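User: Fold this, then the next.

Assistant: Folding the first:
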Amino acid sequence: MATSVGRPRRVLNLDQLRALLAALLTTDGVEASLAALVVLTGQRAGSIASMDWKSIDLDRREWRMPRKGAAPWRLPIPTIGFSLMLAASGGVRPDGAVLLRGGRPIDLTRCRKWLEGRLPAGLVDWSHPELRRSVLAAMVDAGLSFEIVGEIAGRRTLAREDPRWTRRALRSALDDWARALADTTS
């Protein structure tokens, strides 16, 4: 089996994720909003970058992500993440427009390079997949169950459960996660 050559994978712990989120929330720009939404939701950066207004249920604060051959997957959005999305879009709600950056695609490589020049040293030494893996691992470390984190990751671990219970459990878990990120006393 071939081994990969290059830099080792970067894994951020909960304290590093807290510092990163604090820096992202005080940095203007769509790129910072995208990375902050990865930290808050555990979703893939590419999925967040292509999120459009038609997939957002404003009343329920849910993101309906399309799935091939199945009903859309509904992920609750933490309050802070929802506020961030509205701010990043300028509060404008054009039908069908990509949520972040008003319809223009976001280049994830350029996004990371843009962040490197604006955040403190050591906070941007990751790729977007490494950031997502770090977030999902830190969610488990913060006390979220493997089943809930699997559901957040899109693994459909709770698919046989009542969908309303699953949405409530996800909303509660993501709100707990946002509180864990905000808690600097532990």
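Now the next one, as you asked:
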Amino acid sequence: MKMILFYLFFIPCIPLAAKSMDIHQVRENYPLAVDNKKICKTTLNALIHMPQSAIVMVYLGAYQAMLAKHLFNPIEKLNSFSKGKKNIEKAVTMAPNSLEVRFIRLSIQANSPRILNYRSAIEVDKNYVIKGFSSIENNHLKTLVQELSKSSTLFTPDEKKQLK
């Protein structure tokens, strides 16, 4: 009887935990998901269940693209990255003036393998992020931008100074 109660009440709650993640947690998990498959998959699952918006769509795409790094099968890797790319571009279409959307696309393009040929908007997005950096109110996003500029060869020393 106890097992039946366990399955009836506890097991259905497990997916709800992933679904109840908010966008703040998605943002916090973003840099962690690069190296942590569990965080990447859990956050991706939560994003799938969130109401659709440009911000949700860009993070959905970013997590799908990052998931490719954690997969073994080359076909699955390519499919996951392709879905991610499509969703990122959809988000940019939905909100072309969103600095956060542009930054997420920039971070994925900056870190994607050249062979995938997803680097066409790097300069445009980089310039957009640099110009809008001083208006960023979200400290976490500001820190992510600064970390990308420090770790990437895409930014010149002068551009890095503008992002301090």
